[in-house]
Amino acid sequence: MVVPLPLKFGDYLSASSMRSLINIAAPYNHVKVPFAMQSLGALRLTPTRYMKTENKPNDYYVNL
């Protein structure tokens, strides 16, 4: 189920993994999405180590 939110932070495309969003205006900026999905019979999860980064996403959005 997809629930659209009334927020806009830019235009993004999904990466092939479906767990990363690529900013169209700045293609080297990616946003990891913490969700699980089943693809080709395998459950794909985003490991927590990818969610813990030096540049915290909240810090990025505060500076927009």
Can you walk through the features of this model?
The chain contains two helices and five strands. The protein has helices spanning 48-51, 57-62, and strands at residues 12-14, 20-23, 30-32, 37-39, 42-44. A three-stranded antiparallel sheet has the order 1-2-3, with no helix packed on it. Strands 4-5 form a two-stranded antiparallel ribbon. Strand 4 (37-39) and strand 5 (42-44) form a beta hairpin. The chain is globular, with a radius of gyration of 13 Å. The mean pLDDT is 72.
List the helices and strands and how they pair.
Blueprint: E1 12-14, E2 20-23, E3 30-32, E4 37-39, E5 42-44, H1 48-51, H2 57-62
Antiparallel strand pairs: 1-2, 2-3, 4-5
Pfam families: IucA_IucC
Protein name: Siderophore staphylobactin biosynthesis protein SbnC
Domain Aerobactin siderophore biosynthesis IucA/IucC N-terminal: 2-52
Helix count equals 2
SSE series: EEEEEHH
What is the total number of structural domains?
1
Biggest sheet: strands, sense, closure? 3 strands, antiparallel
Strands of the largest sheet, in order across it?
Answer: 1-2-3
Structural class: alpha+beta
Mean pLDDT: 72
> How would you sum up the global shape?
globular
What is the count of β-strands? 5
Percent helix range: 10-25%
What portion of residues belong to β-strands? 25-35%
CA gyration radius, whole angstroms: 13 Å
* Poorly predicted spans: none
GO biological process, one term: siderophore biosynthetic process
InterPro entries: Aerobactin_biosyn_IucA/IucC_N (IPR007310)
Protein name: Siderophore staphylobactin biosynthesis protein SbnC
Domain Aerobactin siderophore biosynthesis IucA/IucC N-terminal: 2-52
